[in-house]
Amino acid sequence: MTLTQSLFIIACLIAASGFFAVAEISLAASRRLRLRQHADEGDLRADKVLKMQEQPGDYFTVVQVGQNGIAILGGIVGEGALSSTLTSLLILWLPESTAQSLASVCSFLIITSLFILFSDLLPRRLSMVKPEYWAVRVLGPMQLCMTVFRPIVWFYARTTDALFKILGLPDKRDERITSDDILAMTEAGARAGVLARREQQAIANIFELDSRTVSSAMTPRDRIAYFLRDDPDHVIRARIAEEPFSTYPVCDGDIDHIVGYVDAKDLFQRVLNNQPISLKDDSLIRKILIVPDKLTLAEVLDQFQQVHEDFAAILNEYSLMVGVVTLNDVMSTVMGDLVSPDDEEQIMRRDEHSWLIDGATPIDDVQRALGIDELPHDEEYETLAGFLMVMLRRIPRRTDSVNWGGYKFEVMDVDSYRIDQVLVLKLDPDAPVVGDSNGAVATQPIPTMPVAAIAAIAAAVTVDDEEATTSSAPPEPPAPSVP
């Protein structure tokens, strides 16, 4: 065999090996969503690739048989093609034995390098860039190879299946798409500029509806504007003027005995028609949706859809009202920081290293704004105020602070035990981990003591007090003698 013939055979073997490398990587890397899109557009080859991904055993058997067979043939042909030629060249300067040994080494390195570059690295990178493009184009030749080598394919495929069963390994790819997969795709799309950051954040917020409780989006109890059933006309009008809302809960006696709600449109109609407003009129009061405070936002949306309402009262396990929530509140959670001009921002960034945050802000929003992945005892609270209470183990006061995750959370304003404003400052990396304004560590809860131990201590203190009282009392005067 001449040198030209050997080189031609080597080139054909490299091309065949490159084809199998493209076939292997393109099928494994092809995205099912993209293939499904091509199939829906009428590309029948994409549908065949999808079916091949479901049962890829025979396909990859052909790939491996082809690649290993070509590697063996390449070594045999390359050794015979280049060794003699290189030996005849090197023998002009080196002894015959040395020239033969060096020619064999050089032949091995040249053939190996050609296979690595042109049958492995180059085709694999090419197929990784556009896997779906190449998968639909190599499928036809691969099916032909599967037909030609069917006996060999059958033997190795069945042997592999038996090994999988013996070892208890899964032999099918899990094609389920999870929320994490979708979020990862949207994040990649946002980084690539295909998806706007606001759109990506809205999609992420939608998936959070299943994990966020309704209390994270509600209007808390102390901010609810409501009417009592026996409020007179002038009180109702004054409250509407002072706190204009679209919906008002109606209560009997106090806020914890809610009987329904009244729509502001019905009240306005009465005002425009110069009719008196009386909430004792049952025609004005509508039935209100009552939901427990442990529901998620997704469950609240389902209940809104079932009863065709957009307003609900939230009760805790003691049947006390803790807040109200509207459909607009839930959608505001989805839209993130897209709030209307009339709404007050709960998180205001003062500069690059400081934020002013409302104490009632959901802790998830705080973590997202500050870039904090995890907070301690996060199952015990849902708002920034709750975080401070848990960390300090008491009701926070002004100037109290907690350091965590490279940030300092300092209470700026407290109104009747309610934390109004919290100043968040970004700290230097060398700052202490956690502490309050007095320097006390607040990461761990206060240790508890058994009831028996507490009772024993209390009894000991009582005995000591009695002894101290007895020893410190002045001596009684002697009784007067009777003559």
UniProtKB/TrEMBL annotation:
Keyword Cell inner membrane among record annotations: yes
Primary location group: membrane
Residue stretches spanning the membrane: 6-29, 70-95, 101-122
Pfam entry (one): CNNM
Domain CNNM transmembrane as annotated: residue spans: 1-199
Name of the protein in its database record: Polyamine export protein
Membrane topology type: Multi-pass membrane protein
Keyword Repeat: yes
Ranges of residues in domain CBS: 218-277, 284-344
Top-level division of the source organism's lineage: Bacteria
Chain intervals with Pro residues compositional bias: 474-483
Cross-referenced InterPro entries: CBS_dom (IPR000644), CBS_dom_sf (IPR046342), CNNM (IPR002550), FAD-bd_PCMH-like_sf (IPR036318), FAD-bd_PCMH_sub2 (IPR016169), Ion_transp-like_CBS (IPR044751), Transptr-assoc_dom (IPR005170)
